[in-house]
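FORM 7B: Structural annotation worksheet

SECTION A. Query
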Amino acid sequence: MAFFEVRADTREGQALLRRFGMPGTHGLVVLDRQGAVIWRSFGHDTTPEQVEEMLRRATR
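SECTION B. Predicted structure
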């Protein structure tokens, strides 16, 4: 498992935001082993419990 921070104020960051359909606000994208998006969240509404559950599912 790897975690990456993406800065929306960079060219690379803008490209990644477009690739994963992110609006440029705080968000989280979980990819499967093949690189397909299996979950995404925007803004600050996601709870730590939701993130933990999604990470459990993604690592099965």
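SECTION C. Observations
The beta strands are 27-31, 37-42. The mean pLDDT is 84.

SECTION D. Sign-off
Analyst initials: ____
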